[in-house]
Amino acid sequence: SLGDRLGGVFDRLRGRGALTEADVRGAMREVRIALLEADVALPVARDFVDKITEAAVGQQVLRSVTPGQQVVKIVNDALVEMLGGDSAELEIGVTPPAVVMLVGLQGSGKTTTTAKLARLLRKQGKKVMMASLDVNRPAAQEQLTVLGTQAEVATLPIVEGQQPVEIARRALQSAKLQGYDVVMLDTAGRLHVDQALMAEMQAVADIARPNEILLVVDSLTGQDAVNVARNFSDQVPLTGVILTRMDGDARGGAALSMRAVTGKPIKFAGVGEKLDAIEPFHPKRVAGRILGMGDVVSLVEKAAEAIQADDAEKMAARLAKGQFDMNDLRNQLAQMRRMGGIGALAGMIPGMKKAQAAMASSNVDERVLLRMDAMIGSMTPKERAKPELLNAKRKIRVAKGSGTTVQDVNKLLKMHQEMSTAMKRIKKMGGIKGLAAMLG
Ligand code: GDP
Ligand code: MG
Predict the structure, then answer these.
(1) 43, 138, 230, 412: which has the fewest C-beta neighbours closer than 10 Å?
(2) What would the pLDDT profile of 351-408 be if each residue is shown by its tens digit?
(3) What is the distance between the alpha carbons of residues 125 and 141, in angstroms, rounded to a whole number?
């Protein structure tokens, strides 16, 4: 698995603090192979890897997980973000009838999916009509009628010899007359993308003005998925994608390709031949499938939680003694950086909250936090334990050592002073137990 491969790459890295560019590049070679094995299209895999390489470099490796596991988590999070974010809802809350059109290659699952969606909408209380525009394949229209009976959804009566555009027009007219909420248009496919098919899709879209044009793609399509998606996406104004046969042994790679090429949300996943075998698309599940690493991801999540609890406990022990020196401040700063915000424990404490709010409002970004860290790094151990030792001369030394100014050092000392005062106040109130009682 990807985990085993990454283990090898990262063995020599164990116990080190941050991921370096060279380390991440090594790991990303393995990630790229994993993506390709999951059928993610090559250019998509390449782009994706470039993007996360940048994001991963410099990230801290948590204790109790290996750097390889940490990288898996980073990759996983990036996958989920790329695959998701959008809801599976269909845009059918318009003045009825809403028009939903399904397009895609032959055999991708359009007709089945049309019936599945129609059934779903009927169960939500919508009055739905389906129409087959497939005049190419013999008995294609009858197939939809049969499915309509199973799904208890109306189908437009078949009129021999009508062309797709005429059928679409007739479907819209009768839906309007009979008060349907939704008209679903099932279209013809081809074995390969061809110009005649695209022209037909465009002509239908022009007269039906669909609220949704959904590209139906077989998730087993593999590397070719990108070409299919690009062709349809270039020529028909897609609003979303539906991936079928996710119940097969597909490893979900097509999902990433589809999302990357069309830029449109994946709204549903087909998970079987039966009419109820459709579900909203779950980015987390699919990301886990692509990497085959669901367990590792939750392990790293737990480790991240544990480490925060661990820090909080240590901090609490010192708080109980009313202690707060520069080392404590440094830990707080590191925690803020890690969490991209206010430290967990600190945020709970009244006095600290104020001091940290002041930090937050004074525009404490990553750079400022790093500068503070550099200042504390330029202090001697004695100065860190007893900041009051810092006289004018020592301040100049610290400023020089950290590439800052004496003013910056003064600001840091003031912040430490405020936080330290808050700690003493807490001690007076009976230490952390008293605080807990007060909060509790
Ligand atoms: P169309 O040519 O795009 O209209 O494709 P069809 O809807 O006729 O489907 C082709 C075949 O794929 C049929 O045998 C369907 O039962 C099957 N099929 C469609 N969706 C799924 C799915 O999500 N899972 C599985 N296992 N089979 C599916
Ligand atoms: Mg069909």
Answers:
(1) 138
(2) 555 555 555 555 556 677 888 989 999 999 999 999 999 999 999 999 999 999 999 9
(3) 25
The Cα 378–Cα 401 span in angstroms is 6
Cβ atoms of 74 and 59 closer than 8 Å: yes
| Chain centre to alpha carbon of residue 393 | 51
Kindly provide the ipTM of the predicted complex, given to two decimals. Answer: 0.99
**392 to 191, 395, 397, 401: CA distances (angstroms):** 80, 5, 9, 14
* One-letter amino acid for residue 57 of the chain: V
Q: What CA–CA distance (Å, rounded) separates 83 from 256?
A: 6
Q: Do the annotations mark residue 187 as ligand-binding?
A: yes
List Cβ<8 Å contacts ≥24 apart for 368-375: 369/333, 369/336, 369/337, 370/337, 371/402, 371/403, 371/404, 371/408, 372/329, 372/333, 372/412, 373/330, 373/333, 373/334, 374/401, 374/402, 374/403, 374/404, 375/399, 375/402, 375/404, 375/408, 375/409, 375/412
Ligand 1 cavity residues, CB under 6 Å: 104, 106-112, 189, 244-245, 247-248, 270-273, 277
Q: How far is CA 401 from CA 13, 331, 364, 386, 413, in A?
A: 29, 20, 21, 18, 16
Looking at the chain, the whole-number percentage of residues with pLDDT higher than 90 is 42
CA distance 262 to 226: 9
Q: Write out the two tokens for 413.
A: 């000392």
End-to-end CA separation in angstroms for the chain: 46
Instruction: Identify which of 102, 232, 244 to mutate to test ligand 1's pocket (most ligand atoms within 8 A of the CB).
Output: 244
Residue ranges of domains in the chain, CATH in brackets: 2-85 (1.20.120.140), 98-280 (3.40.50.300), 321-439 (1.10.260.30)
Q: Which residues contact 206 (CB under 8 A, 6 or more apart)?
A: none
- Residue 187: pLDDT above 80? yes
What distance in angstroms lies between residue 225's CA and the mean position of ligand 1's atoms?
16
**Euclidean distance between CA atoms 173 and 169, whole angstroms:** 6
Helices (H) and strands (E) in the chain, counts: 20, 8
Nearest CA residue ID for atom 25, ligand 1:
272
- How many other CB atoms sit within 10 Å of the CB of residue 61? 20
Average pLDDT over residues 167-192: 94
Residue 428: per-residue pLDDT: 67
Q: How far apart are CA 389 and CA 178, in angstroms?
A: 86
The b-or-e profile of 92-111 (16+ CB within 10 A means b, else e) is beeebbbbbbbbbbeebbbb
pLDDT for the residue numbered 38: 83
